[in-house]
Amino acid sequence: MSERWSLAETADYAAAHGASLQVRRTRNWVVTVVLALADVATFAVAGTLFRRIVDVPHIPLKFEFLAIDRPVDVFYVMCAIFVVARYLSGDYSRRLPFWEGARLTTISVVIVAFPIALFTFFSGHYYSTFAQVSSWIFVIFGLPLSRQLARYLLDQVSLWWLPSALIVEGLDATEVIRAFSGSLSLGFDVRFHVPLGDQPVDRMAFPNVSSIALSDPGQIVARLVEAGCSEILVATDHQQNAMVEDLVQHALAARMGVAFIAPARHRSFPGVSVNYFFDRDFVPMPARSSLSWALKRLVDVIGSIVLLTVFSPILLLFGYLIRRDGGQALFVQPRVGLNGEEFPCIKFRTMAQDAEAQLAEWRRTNSPLYQEYLTSNFKLKDDPRVTSFGKWLRRTSLDELPQLINVLQGHMSLVGPRPLIAREISSYGVTFKLYRQIRPGLTGLWQVSGRSRTTFSDRVSLDYWYIRNWSLLFDVIILFKTVGVLISKDGAY
Fold first, then answer.
1. Are both 184 and 325 inside the same structural domain?
2. CA 20 to 30 Å from 243, out of 37, 270, 365, 398?
3. Backbone angle region of 202, left / alpha / beta, with phi > 0 → left and psi within -120 to 50 → alpha
4. Does the predicted model carry a pTM greater than 0.85?
């Protein structure tokens, strides 16, 4: 191996230590199942106490092959929806301070209960108001407590606390460790300390915390993998630190979770919700399981097949209309995707056949159009090379429909960062290390956040946040928002 480890070497080393990775995966699954069962138990107790012998909304449930044919309380149906939604959103694997977790759980319960409230109000049938209100109030207060009880029980069998490493810069390492040690909700057991300056740990207070005095981020992460570390906790007062960024990239390559403790001004991205902890903002980035990525890919395959089938007549019609000028219907351009490898990105051709020649002429003459093209994220609002039909395709973003083929081939995902052109990599900065770890998307956070009205820097920040906070539920939200953006043509040209 080279003297300084690459991300690929770190990932290979972590994969080679499969026992450690398998232990982490098994622990995560056990924790997920136990927390989900705690939620189910809370709903069950609420239903038994308040809804068992009174009139409440029911729906018919019939499964002939299971010999089931009876009405079921809607409350239990919403329980199933609640648990599935929280799992898909990553809630059971995300570690948050107690009160922040309680706040998010309360919001989720209110969202789930709202349809039942509407149904009850407009049904015209009298249902027990006391039973319905009391059961949901019980759930709101009971869920955080039952989850905390589940964490306590997991702690009793040594499955809750995660072996963690603390990376500190500009803060008192001892105080940070003490704060984590007192939080059962977070469950981070700080066993390792990676100092980036003069932040010693009080050995009298924490004799079991080992310091790792290595300079190469890859070797540091390899040492942590060997020791069974599951989480990297980054506590810093500085906005940019190359060493910290490299450590985070290597930790993610080794499938470790990462959490930040930093002032909000240092890590503020549009739409980010951070959590208050230790007089700081706590931003968790849970490690994504291989199952989560497999589910994302499954959704991509099924979704692209369905959409290609539905839109096939439109695809054929657009192809015919574009070819009337004698040119090709499709425009294929090399884009950078997973692992930094280029792939042929497919779009409908929206420009005249000599568009590249015109661009070369602008460059040669240093045309004002070329200067505008460079400063506006390589796009012109009124590009004279675009055909009349191409302008309509761009405004509606229908020119990107053929990328469904890229999704089916595995080059792209339905949701992800916008695919990069090779010349954009240098402007993308350190975020490119994250970008190359996932497939670019047909749509994404940038596309539903202003698109061409935003700067390239905004795009990088949005991509950065999406990659580090991805969940299946977030993808679903983006897909629904994309429909609204396409209808309104917001930010498209």
1. no
2. 270
3. beta
4. no
